[in-house]
Write a structure and sequence with these properties.
Coiled coil: 60-87
Shape: elongated
Distance between the termini: 35 Å
Strand content: 5-15%
Number of strands: 2
Largest sheet: 2 strands, antiparallel
Number of domains: 1
Radius of gyration: 21 Å
Order of helices and strands: EEHHHH
Number of helices: 4
Family: Belongs to the TPD52 family.
Structural class: mainly alpha
InterPro entries: TPD52
Keywords: Coiled coil
Protein name: Tumor protein D54
Helix content: 55-70%
Length: 119
């Protein structure tokens, strides 16, 4: 198995010391580590690529500015989502819900769905 192979519940990248938890029942589900949030987008690499035929320099510049704006918005949305997921995790902890409870509920629902399906 290569060192880049996917594992069932976690993804780890050799260049980061942290691990991103993607467990469906985890309060940290889908959160990017701080190290991953701080990885800059290489806009210089985008600038090195040749512009498609038919685009003027002004159009190309406008598109690059829009890309930068959208990438900034994506970063903001990731931060908002991470804060909401943390809040959700806190609420679940206050209610005494654990990831194991969520897993049990998901398995029960899946088993019920299998039993009532016509397949």
């Amino acid at each position: 198995m290569s060192r880049f192979a996917c594992r069932p519940l976690t993804i780890s990248a050799p260049c980061f010391s942290s691990v991103t938890d993607i467990s469906l029942n985890s309060p940290n589900k889908g959160l990017l580590s701080d190290a991953m949030m701080d990885v800059p987008v290489d806009s210089a690499a985008a600038a090195r690529t040749a512009a498609p035929e038919g685009l003027s320099a002004a159009e190309e510049e406008e598109l690059r500015a829009e890309i930068a704006k959208v990438e900034e918005e994506i970063g903001t949305l990731r931060q908002v989502l991470a804060a909401k997921e943390r809040h959700c995790g806190e609420l679940k902890r206050k209610l005494g819900l654990t990831p194991l409870d969520g897993l049990k509920q998901n398995l029960s629902k899946s088993w019920h769905d299998v039993q009532v399906s016509n397949a």
